[in-house]
Amino acid sequence: MHKKLFYLILLLCFFKLFHVAYKSVQFSPNILFNSFKRNVAEKSSLGFASNDVIPLRNFFLDRNISEFTLSKKIIGDKDNNILYMSIIEFNYPIKLSENSPIFIAYKNEKVESNCNLLHITENYNIYECE
Fold it and tell me: What are 96's strand-pairing partners?
């Protein structure tokens, strides 16, 4: 009898933990059950930055790019500091380097004439500069 009661209490605790997690932090069972699969919940974890950061990473991986540089406007933009950090953290091990020919700038930003446009995301352009 004590063993059945123990398992019942354990089961109730498990369900309550599930309930609390789901209600408080938008817990997703899908993410839990697929947590060891590749690229699960990238969009939800990046939020609004996912429309730019995921295509950047995919482009870098497709082209075997190992380093990039960001425009001074992106680095100094205090309003979009989350985007700046997301670009750097999500693209790891692809590194930020001042001497890289791959240059990321805002779409409305003017770049040098020796830069060729390689790829476009929602808010950014990727250039290769000489």
Answer: 68
Query: Closest Cα partner for 42 from 86, 84, 96?
Result: 86
Contact partners, residue 97, CB within 8 Å, separation at least 6:
67, 68, 69
Which residues neighbour 71 within 8 Å (Cβ) at sequence distance 6 or greater?
A: 103, 104, 105, 106, 109, 111
pLDDT tens, residue by residue, 11-43: 998 888 777 766 666 666 777 676 677 776 777
**DSSP code string of 33-74:** HTTTSTTTTHHHHHGGGHHHHHHHHHHHHHTT--EEEE-HHH
Task: Please provide the DSSP assignment of 93-129 as one string.
Answer: TSEE-TT-SEEEEETTS---TTEEEEEE-SSEEEEEE
Whether 124 contacts 52, CB under 8 Å? yes
C-alpha 5: how far from chain center? 45
State the Cα torsion 103-57-26-34 to the nearest 10°.
Answer: -170
| 112 or 101, higher pLDDT | 101
